[in-house]
Design goal:
The protein contains eight helices and ten strands. The chain is globular. The chain is an alpha/beta fold. Helix 4 (115-127) crosses helix 5 (143-155). A hairpin with a 1-residue loop joins strand 9 and strand 10 (217-223). The strands form two sheets. A six-stranded mixed β-sheet has the order 6-7-8-3-9-10, sandwiched between helices. Strands 2-1-4-5 form a four-stranded antiparallel β-sheet, with helices on one face. It has a domain at 3-86 and 159-252: Rossmann fold.
Length: 257
C-alpha cells in the first residue's frame, strides 16, 4: 500500500528546547490516523513540518513519495485549523461562498464560478451534512456547524489527504461523537486519508484506523485495536500524569477501562 506520508528520524528544536526527537511515522493511503498527546507535546510543530511551514532540522519527510522540499502538488492536501473557536461571526459571507473560496487556487483568483464548480460546492456541503445551510450566513452557525463548513471548504478541491488540527474546538460535547462519525464516513466513502490531532483519546477510538501517541518522543504508533489495549500506566508515562482510558464503543456503554 502506498504511503501518503512517511516521516523518518525527524527531530526539531526551538533554540535549546527539544520539541520532537527521532520521530518515525508512516501513514498509508486511505488510513485515518489520530495523533494524541498532552499540551506542549510537539503535535502542532509536527503539523507545521508536514505542511511545509517549518523545515526539518534533522530527518526527512516524504509526501506522496516525494521528499518534502521537492513536493509541489500542495492541492493534494487539505488543512482545517481550529477556526471555529476564533471565527469572526460578523464575517459577511454565506456558507456556499466560504466553500467556494476553497476552489480559488484551482480555478484562479479572478475566474468566474460555473455550474460545475457550484456542483462541487453542493457535493462538499452534502458530504458534511450542511447542504441545507448553503445560503445561511456563516456567522449564524454554531461552532460545530462552522467547522463542518470549513471541512467542506477543504474537501471542495478534492484533496487526497485532509489534515485537521483539534477540529472539535468549539463543538458542543453532545455533538462531538456525531462529528467524528462524519469524519469516519468521509474517510470511507471518499477514500480520503485523514490525519487528525486531538485530545479526545476515548471518543476517537472507534472511528480511526491508527493512533500515534506523541510527547516529544513517539510513545506509540500502530493500529487502534493495539492502542486500546495499552496499559493505563504506559499511557500515563507518555502523558506525564495519570490517564484513564475510556471505551466509547456504543455496545460497551462508555465503560472505564
Amino acid at each position: 500500500m502506498q504511503s501518503i506520508i512517511e516521516i523518518k528520524n525527524l527531530s526539531y528544536r526551538y533554540e535549546k528546547d527539544v520539541v520532537l526527537e527521532d520521530i518515525n511515522i508512516t501513514i498509508p493511503n486511505g488510513s485515518f490516523l489520530a495523533i494524541v498527546g498532552p499540551n506542549g507535546s510537539g503535535k502542532s510543530t509536527l503539523l507545521k513540518l508536514i505542511l511545509g511551514l517549518l523545515k526539518p532540522q534533522k530527518g526527512v519527510i516524504y509526501l506522496f513519495g516525494n521528499e518534502i522540499n521537492k513536493f509541489k502538488d500542495w492541492q493534494k492536501i487539505g488543512y482545517v485549523s481550529q477556526k471555529a473557536n476564533s471565527f469572526n461571526t460578523g464575517f459577511p459571507a454565506t456558507v456556499s461562498e466560504v466553500v467556494e473560496s476553497g476552489l480559488t487556487k484551482k480555478i484562479g483568483m479572478f475566474k468566474f464560478f460555473n455550474k460545475e464548480h457550484a456542483g462541487k460546492v453542493s457535493e462538499a456541503l452534502d458530504a458534511v451534512g450542511m447542504k441545507e445551510f448553503s445560503s445561511r450566513n456563516i456567522g449564524e452557525l454554531s461552532g460545530g456547524q462552522q467547522q463542518r463548513v470549513f471541512i467542506a471548504r477543504a474537501l471542495v478541491s478534492e484533496p487526497s489527504l485532509l489534515i485537521l488540527d483539534e477540529p472539535t474546538v468549539g463543538v458542543d460535547a453532545e455533538n462531538v461523537s456525531n462529528f467524528y462519525q462524519m469524519l469516519g464516513d468521509l474517510n470511507k466513502s471518499r477514500d480520503i486519508t485523514l490525519l487528525l490531532v486531538t485530545h479526545d483519546i476515548g471518543t476517537i477510538s472507534d472511528r480511526v484506523s491508527h493512533v500515534a501517541c506523541l510527547n516529544k518522543h513517539l510513545h506509540f504508533h500502530g493500529a487502534t485495536h493495539e492502542f486500546e489495549h495499552l496499559r493505563a500506566e504506559d499511557m500515563s508515562k507518555a502523558y506525564g500524569h495519570e490517564i484513564h482510558m475510556l471505551d466509547h464503543h456504543h455496545e460497551h456503554g462508555g465503560v472505564v477501562k
